[in-house]
Amino acid sequence: MAIVRDEPGVDGLSEAVGVLREWQDDGAPMQLHPGDLGWFWRFGAEATAAAVRTWNRDGQILAVGLLDGPQLLRLTIAPDARRDGELAQQLARDVTEPACGVLGEGTVNVEAPLGALVQDLLFEAGWNSDEPRTPLRRDLTRPVEDPDVRIEVVGPEQAHVRAAVQRASFDRSTFTDERWHAMAAGLPYADARCLVAYDDRGNAVAAVTVWSAGPGKPGLLEPMGVHREHRGQGYGKAITVAAAAALQELGSSSAIVCTPSSNVGAVATYSSAGFQQLPGTRDQYRAA
Question: Is the dihedral of CA 219, 220, 226, 227 positive or negative?
């Protein structure tokens, strides 16, 4: 059967999220997680559906991609199909040729799991490696320590607090109360939590969203941020430890996160919270 590229639409998002859950494994390389779709869901179900691509054979999804912006495709592949030649050829063609409707003209990036055959084909076609990123993982089979700060789980009434900390943590953030509610209405958020850390004066100082992929699967931190006025006081470590504890309560086998290797502060924060660095990864890019 031929490989079919598809835009699943809102009705097809449930299946895409479902296979992403199935493909998560502690022994797998860093890859697209259902939480990545969940975080994108802040823009609404229709926008999320418009950003998702699937590749199918005989009705079975073999690959899922998320257009995290017009120039970046975050791609993952079924574990038993990562070296599938027919699939790799189709993926390489679809991301290289703008007429296929995946990536456009100019400089574009593809994130794919380490060891996937499509990476080899893109290098052969002249694509290059981009800046390194550092994945980190914390095993959750052992108890997680207390974060030593007040942590609250965010519900609809506290959405404005979560959104405000996000904007105060990331200079270009456009996160709002409305986008929190859109995210919380998405399918992946059924197994997610937003946490906010408070200092001794009651100020909201850090926040994180954690995404479970189901019991016995790695859970994702995306995103984590510390209010710019409260940095350097250990709140990043505290909220990260709290995130690990929340994922443990949700049944996750481990907690995973990935950050640009150039962000040495973030790498140090995650490491201080008990996360171990994994082999680095790089996107591939095609220059304009």
Answer: negative
Residues with Cβ within 8 Å of residue 59, at least 6 apart in sequence = none
- Report whether the peptide linkage leading into residue 223 is cis, meaning its omega lies within 30 degrees of zero: yes
- C-alpha to C-alpha distances, 176 to 41, 184, 186, nearest whole angstrom: 13, 12, 16
Q: Is 195 left (phi over 0), alpha (psi -120 to 50) or beta?
A: beta
Apex 41 CA angle, 247 and 95, nearest 5: 105
Neighbours of 27 (CB within 10 A): 6
Give dist(CA 99, CA 69) in Å, integer. Answer: 17
CB-facing half-sphere around the CA of 216: CA atoms within 13 A: 2
Q: What is the CA radius of gyration of the chain?
A: 19
78's tokens: 């079924």
Tell me the per-residue pLDDT of 270-288, one tens digit each, with 9 for 90 and over: 999 999 999 999 999 999 8
Q: Which of 166, 177, 134 is closest to 280 using CA atoms?
A: 134
Q: pLDDT tier at 212 (50, 70, 90 boundaries)?
A: very high
**Widest Cα–Cα separation across the chain:** 63
Q: Classify 287 as helix, strand or coil.
A: coil
pTM assigned to the model:
0.97
Neighbours of 231 (CB within 10 A): 16
| Predicted pLDDT of residue 1 | 77
- Per residue in 151-169, pLDDT tens? 999 999 999 999 999 999 9
Encoded amino acid at 94, one letter = D
Query: Are the C-beta atoms of 151 and 195 separated by less than 8 Å?
Result: yes
- In angstroms, the Cα distances linking 269 to 29, 39, 156 are 22, 21, 28
